[in-house]
Amino acid sequence: MGYAMAKNLRARIPAEDVLIIQDINTAATKQFVEEAGIQKIKVADTVRQVAEEAETIITALPEPQHVKAVYSAMLDPPTLLTSTSIQSPRLFIDSSTIDITTSAEVAALAQGSKQGIFIDAPMSGGVVGAQAGTLSFMVGCEPEHLERASAVLMMMGKRVLHLGRQGAGLKGKLANNYLLALNNLATAEAMNMGVQWGLEPKALANMINLSTGKCWPSEVNNPVPGVVEAAPSSRGYEGGFGVGLANKDLKLALKDAHEAGVKIVLGDVAKQLYDAVEKDEKCKGRDFSVVYRYLGGKE
């Protein structure tokens, strides 16, 4: 997703500005530079270099430990050199989906170092949304920083949803992805139920999507192959939102919910199923709608 987001940023920032990129995958950064042509791109050797030379720093990482490591490398020691091109306080935007506690720790590190402003802005829309520039960002920041952050985020998406102060964006994202994981499982069960009863899959999906059962997994990402031609299920569940990532987000949501004393009924049962799906040789590494296959659905 970060690759596509960076492409949209480069296309929309002023031509004279330099986009600085850094990734442990050097093949990806090399390809990015080649595709950019004459556009101004600089590949940084370290994340510390990015923080020293950029006014706005956007991070998008898989796991909490990765976010911690990157921000520690950028901000410890808290004596960043400042490029003459930096006119405003640095803005650190973390678009990773991580747990609330880790995000708060990273925010404290960024703000305690007095090296800039930190906001959480996890995203929704997947790889397709990143490529199309239609991502939705759930933002947690002080109101006075929203306008500046929104200007950057709208270069990569079409919605900026401000949910409150730092941490609020992440809380909203985890609640959303918790619901998504359950909807995905329920859709797979309902479609499997109807197909096993002899209903034609497309007719069943059309009825659901015109009725109260409509949801994103039923309408856009239907788990039955052939129902939605563009859905991962129609290409062997390749691409899309990996079941491992869906399970990770569910785990994070459950962790933070339990720590807050929130009563959970469905989530813990769903987590057991996603654990099993992620380990299954026929399912692991595939889009999370592959739960339909795990349930024995007809393909």
From TrEMBL:
Origin superkingdom: Eukaryota
Record-listed E.C. numbers: 1.1.1.31
Keyword vocabulary terms for this entry: Branched-chain amino acid catabolism, NAD, Oxidoreductase
GO CC annotation, single: mitochondrion
UniProt-annotated catalytic positions: 173
The protein's annotated pathway: Amino-acid degradation; L-valine degradation
Keyword Oxidoreductase on entry: yes
Any one Gene Ontology molecular-function term assigned to this protein's record: NAD binding
SUPFAM superfamilies: 6-phosphogluconate dehydrogenase C-terminal domain-like, NAD(P)-binding Rossmann-fold domains
Residue span, 6-phosphogluconate dehydrogenase NADP-binding domain: 1-164
GO BP of this protein: L-valine catabolic process
InterPro entries referenced in this protein's UniProt entry, alphabetically: 6-PGluconate_DH-like_C_sf, 6PGD_dom2, 6PGDH_NADP-bd, HIBADH-like_NADP-bd, HIBADH-related, NAD(P)-bd_dom_sf
Record's catalysed reaction(s): 3-hydroxy-2-methylpropanoate + NAD(+) = 2-methyl-3-oxopropanoate + NADH + H(+)
Residue ranges occupied by any 3-hydroxyisobutyrate dehydrogenase-like NAD-binding domain in the UniProt entry: 167-295
Family recorded in the similarity comment: Belongs to the HIBADH-related family. 3-hydroxyisobutyrate dehydrogenase subfamily.
PANTHER family in the cross-refs: 3-HYDROXYISOBUTYRATE DEHYDROGENASE, MITOCHONDRIAL, 3-HYDROXYISOBUTYRATE DEHYDROGENASE-RELATED
Protein name: 3-hydroxyisobutyrate dehydrogenase
Lineage of producing organism: Eukaryota, Fungi, Dikarya, Ascomycota, Pezizomycotina
